[in-house]
Amino acid sequence: MDCRCKCCGRRFRRRPQNPDQEYCDRRVCQNKRRQRWRRAKRRSDPTYRDNQRDSQKRWADRHPGYWRRYRADHPDYVERNRRLQRDRDRSRGALNAVTRTGAVLAKSDAYAEDSKAITAYYELIPAKSTDLAKRYASRQIFQLIPVGYDIFRTDSQSCKEITRKTLAGGSARTSVCPRPSP
User: What are the respective helix, strand and coil percentages of the chain, to the nearest 5?
Assistant: First the structure.
């Protein structure tokens, strides 16, 4: 059964002992497979991650001064590291410069500053556990209050009644508080 290696893309024949084999037998591909496995294991298994960290610490304790000697013996490594660090600092500085100019940095799905989105006030009302459909659902109910209701008063009797009706009825409709009369 021929398939393609996930690392190098070459075609190879799977071993009969491992029908799910995804990497060819080249050393670089096997090292990549092991590296990916270790990375996933560290991410998912806190015991493994702690064991790896402790093992590295013990090794560093047994070999004091190793990195100092390594850097002294490998100036090309030191220069490459410095160059990469300068690049990281420069990009981080450019990012900070953007924020200092007042630009807003956000995720791609965030609203643009000039969007026509309606600004609203939110009232957080504690929910009872019986009002929740899923156990991991939010225990807060958000009630939308349009911007035009800037003189909204939470102590208004009509608003309290609407809130109680909304909670008791369990409806998903949005109810808007009437504007209080002057």
Answer: 45, 10, 40
- Measured in whole angstroms, the distance separating CA 85 from the mean position of its chain's CA atoms is 24
Q: In this predicted model, what pLDDT tens digit does every residue of 48-61 receive, in sequence order?
A: 999 999 999 999 99
Ranges of each domain in the chain:
1-63, 65-104, 120-169
In terms of residues, how long is the chain? 182
pLDDT tens readout for residues 34-47: 999 999 999 999 99
Query: Residue 111 and residue 55: Cα distance in Å, rounded?
Result: 46
Of 22, 53, 54, the residue nearest 36 (C-alpha): 22
φ and ψ at residue 148, rounded to 5 degrees: -60, -15
- One DSSP character per residue, 92-153 reads HHHHHHHHHTTPPP--TTSPPTT--PPPEEEEEEEPPGGG-SSTTS-SEEEEEEETT-TT--
- Alpha carbon distance 158, 152 (integer Å): 11
How far is it between the farthest Cα atoms of the chain?
84
In angstroms, rounded to a whole number, what is the distance separating the alpha carbons of residues 169 and 171? Answer: 5
Q: Identify the three-state secondary structure at position 66.
A: helix
Question: Which residues are CB-neighbours of 121 under 8 A, at least 6 positions away?
Answer: 145, 147, 149, 152
